[in-house]
Design brief:
The chain has 219 residues and is mostly helical. It is 59% helix and 0% strand. α4 runs antiparallel to α5 and α6 runs parallel beside α10. The radius of gyration is 18 Å and the shape is globular. The N and C termini lie far apart (65 Å).
Length: 219
């Protein structure tokens, strides 16, 4: 008997939890859990296929290119193998994998399109988890994971004009705010995400002002 949608979503959540629990770079199960919840909250205000939204949110980071030598094909391939194993319809599987393929931020100077509303919802949910208080925490977790400097005033941020340059960057963690995080507010698709992003963006700006003041011994 073919599994029901609810069973597949539950099985997928369990699979991803087992795969990513304890990961220390900020791309762990709890990141997935938050994106999943964000996506469901945003989707409640949109006309979408919730099944596609939930599966994509759960599977979007199972093979992140950052942990596979920059190979962008790993994540969609792993997602496809999982979905096919659970007899998910080809149309749904293709849709999920197409979103995962297009989801990543690819550099400040690059443009990317997300052709479906389901993709916009998941991308917004993922980007919300990259900003605000949690975004700050995740950014420094990843910087420590990659053995990067916190900040170096002699290394200026770079607005990368290609995904290859963006992926190859080894800049200090503070630079990442200017190269990605502070740009995300204006790249949200849905009204719900735009509203939530505004407050998180302001929180990051306040953090940076405090950081620089402490760096110079002013506070």
């Amino acid at each position: 008997m073919k599994p029901q949608k609810e069973e597949i979503i539950a099985a997928t959540a369990g699979y991803v939890k087992d795969l990513l629990s304890g990961e220390g770079s900020g791309h762990d199960w709890w990141h997935i859990y938050r994106v999943w919840n964000n996506a469901k909250s945003i989707a409640a205000h949109e006309n979408v296929n919730m099944y596609v939204v939930e599966l994509t949110a759960l599977l979007h980071d199972i093979g992140d290119h950052k942990f596979h030598n920059g190979d962008e094909s790993v994540g969609p391939r792993m997602a496809r193998e999982w979905l096919q194993h659970h007899e998910v319809e080809a149309e749904t599987t293709d849709h999920v994998c197409d979103i995962i393929k297009a989801l990543s931020f690819k550099g400040a100077g690059t443009s990317s399109s997300m052709p479906t509303t389901e993709g916009c919802v998941v991308q917004d949910a993922d980007r919300l988890d990259a900003i605000g208080a949690i975004g700050i925490a995740r950014t420094f977790a990843y910087g420590g994971h990659k053995n990067r400097e916190l900040y170096n005033p002699h290394i200026k941020p770079e607005l990368h004009d290609s995904f290859e340059k963006y992926k190859a960057s080894t800049a200090p963690t503070i630079n990442h705010f200017y190269e990605k995080l502070l740009l995300l507010k204006d790249r949200m698709h849905t009204e719900t995400a735009k509203r939530l992003a505004e407050e998180r963006h302001q929180y990051m700006e306040g953090f940076l002002n405090q950081f620089y003041a402490e760096w110079e011994g002013e506070k």
